[in-house]
């Protein structure tokens, strides 16, 4: 990478008055001073105007992405459990009020992860981590379009739940509901009556990845709330530290400890979550022990240096590489050599990820549709596309803010704008610039999915249905009576086609983690601007 040094400051010194000019009078001097003051005032006025104009030109609000962001944030309101406050979704009501009560816990808050009524802690925590990251980087842009308050509210709705799900240092409740029972019903969450058991990880049945992801969520959120609610922030950080210690001390995958979770959010490993959580804890605390954890202590074992991966609820490596690159961009000057070199390797891998995303790079991934969308899997394909675009706009802004002009990909050079343009291409595809001419964000544009795989959206509010007889609404030929505003559906097939069918789960089911990634992407595209150099 080519690093650009700070611009040298300089300028001509003002010429001194000539003492030999005895013909100068006090009057002339007074006229001269007045003239200088007038010119200076005029210059300052012009500079002020130019500065204002430059800011307006450099930071215009993109209405398309601002409108999309307003919709995307509403999906979190669609997904809320518990006693709703300031409810923005007229067809939603209170639900899950007794969740956790059999263990004397209040797990009524949180969010249903997708189109059913399950609360899965692993993807919910990831949703919170990504939402925190988005606020930390792009909170100013959210605020400029009056959406920051909604983002705060949604984040806290999750973190309140996560705190309550961690009643002691080595116990974490990560699931509410039995997916086997839940999926035998098609009903609104407001009317569900079946038993909703809770499931925990502990020292006898550890779950490193879910505990570590929850630690990442709470550590990142502690930064978000640090200024406005320091007591709450401190509580979040205490829980994050404890959960990380629990995750690291009792290393085991929750998919192995509790095999029944393998059918829903099966984990492929926990090393990435440990690095991800430690990275966020370093940002939240500036405790060097967390930095050593991700570098000299565990980097070689877990980081898969120079191997590119796809950022998702299950794989955090690409996100970790970008997050740790941030330290190199903005704060590695006084760092010990060993840790600095290890961080450089994370950044090198992040660069490989970025080079793979750029469509005309020599190392560009071929895993795209003909329409240009990153496409990795037939199940929920938009997740990796939106996640990749979010990381790309972040890395582009890191480059701009640090005055890093060039990204090198196998001899070819690229600018921050190239990464941003890639991110724009994915966002625009989602919003309707695709072969189907359809927006995959529900409520955006004139054509979007009408048969979303979502119970609450598909069942009329006044319908008198129970667990089993609600399935008639799943198979109904009528569009959903309630619009799941802001839902990002799973997305298109590899051939860019989409079947708008309610029972087409792979393509038509939305999720909170997809929405969190989209919120981050859209917030980054609202305007062109720098990011903060430090979260603290």
Automatic annotation (TrEMBL):
- List the catalysed reactions: Endohydrolysis of (1->4)-beta-D-glucosidic linkages in cellulose, lichenin and cereal beta-D-glucans
Q: Where is the Glycoside hydrolase family domain?
A: 65-522
**Broadest EC class assigned to this enzyme:** hydrolase
Catalytic activity, EC: 3.2.1.4
Q: Which GO terms describe its biological process?
A: cellulose catabolic process
A GO MF annotation of the entry reads: cellulase activity
One Pfam family here: Glyco_hydro_9
Residues annotated as region Disordered?
1-20
Q: Where are the transmembrane segments?
A: 26-50
What keywords sit in the KW lines?
Answer: Carbohydrate metabolism, Cellulose degradation, Glycosidase, Hydrolase, Membrane, Polysaccharide degradation, Transmembrane, Transmembrane helix
> Where is the catalytic site?
453
Q: Which SUPFAM superfamilies does the annotation name? A: Six-hairpin glycosidases
Q: Which family does it belong to?
A: Belongs to the glycosyl hydrolase 9 (cellulase E) family.
Descriptive protein name = Endoglucanase
Query: Which organism encodes this protein?
Result: Gossypium anomalum
């Amino acid at each position: 990478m080519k690093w650009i040094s700070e611009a040298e400051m300089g300028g001509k010194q003002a010429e001194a008055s000539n003492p030999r000019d005895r013909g100068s009078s006090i009057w002339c001097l007074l006229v001269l001073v007045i003239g200088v003051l007038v010119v200076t005032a005029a210059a300052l006025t012009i500079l002020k105007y130019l500065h204002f104009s430059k800011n307006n030109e450099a930071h215009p609000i993109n209405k398309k992405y601002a409108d999309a962001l307003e919709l995307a944030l509403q999906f979190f309101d669609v997904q809320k459990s518990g006693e709703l406050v300031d409810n923005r979704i007229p067809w939603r009501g209170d639900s899950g009020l007794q969740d956790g009560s059999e263990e004397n816990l209040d797990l009524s808050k949180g969010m249903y992860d997708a189109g059913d009524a399950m609360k899965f802690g692993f993807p919910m925590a990831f949703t919170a981590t990504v939402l925190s990251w988005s606020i930390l980087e792009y909170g100013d842009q959210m605020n400029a379009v009056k959406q920051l308050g909604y983002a705060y509210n949604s984040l806290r709705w999750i973190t309140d739940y996560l705190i309550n799900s961690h009643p002691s240092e080595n116990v974490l409740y990560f699931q509410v509901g039995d997916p086997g029972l839940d999926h035998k019903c098609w009903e609104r969450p407001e009317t569900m009556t079946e038993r909703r058991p809770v499931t925990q990880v502990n020292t006898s049945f550890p779950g490193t990845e879910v505990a570590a992801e929850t630690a990442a969520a709470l550590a990142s959120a502690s930064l978000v709330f640090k200024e406005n609610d320091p007591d709450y922030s401190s509580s979040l950080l205490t829980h994050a530290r404890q959960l990380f210690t629990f995750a690291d001390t009792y290393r085991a995958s929750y998919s192995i400890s509790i095999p029944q979770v393998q059918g829903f959010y099966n984990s492929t490993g926990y090393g990435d979550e440990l690095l991800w959580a430690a990275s966020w804890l370093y940002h939240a605390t500036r405790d060097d022990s967390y930095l050593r954890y991700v570098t000299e202590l565990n980097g070689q074992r877990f980081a898969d240096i120079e191997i590119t991966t796809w950022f998702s609820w299950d794989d955090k490596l690409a996100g970790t590489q970008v997050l740790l690159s941030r330290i190199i961009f903005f704060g590695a000057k006084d760092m010990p050599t060993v840790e600095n070199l290890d961080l450089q390797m994370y950044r090198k891998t992040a660069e490989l990820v970025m080079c793979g995303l750029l469509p005309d790079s020599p190392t560009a991934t071929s895993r795209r549709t003909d329409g240009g969308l990153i496409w990795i899997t037939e199940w929920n394909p938009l997740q990796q596309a939106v996640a990749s675009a979010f990381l790309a706009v972040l890395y582009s802004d890191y480059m701009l803010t640090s005055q890093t002009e060039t990204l090198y990909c196998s001899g070819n050079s690229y600018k921050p704008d190239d990464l941003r343009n890639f991110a724009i291409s994915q966002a625009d595809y989602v919003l309707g610039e695709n072969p189907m001419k359809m927006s995959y964000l529900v409520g955006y544009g004139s054509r979007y999915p009408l048969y979303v795989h979502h119970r609450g959206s598909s069942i009329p509010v006044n319908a008198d249905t129970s667990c089993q007889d609600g399935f008639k609404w799943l198979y109904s030929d009528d569009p959903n009576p309630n619009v799941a505003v802001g839902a990002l559906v799973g997305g298109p097939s590899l051939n860019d086609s989409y079947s708008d069918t309610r029972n087409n789960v792979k393509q038509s089911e939305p999720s909170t983690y997809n929405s969190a990634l989209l919120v981050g992407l859209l917030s980054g595209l609202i305007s062109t601007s720098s990011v903060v150099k430090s979260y603290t």
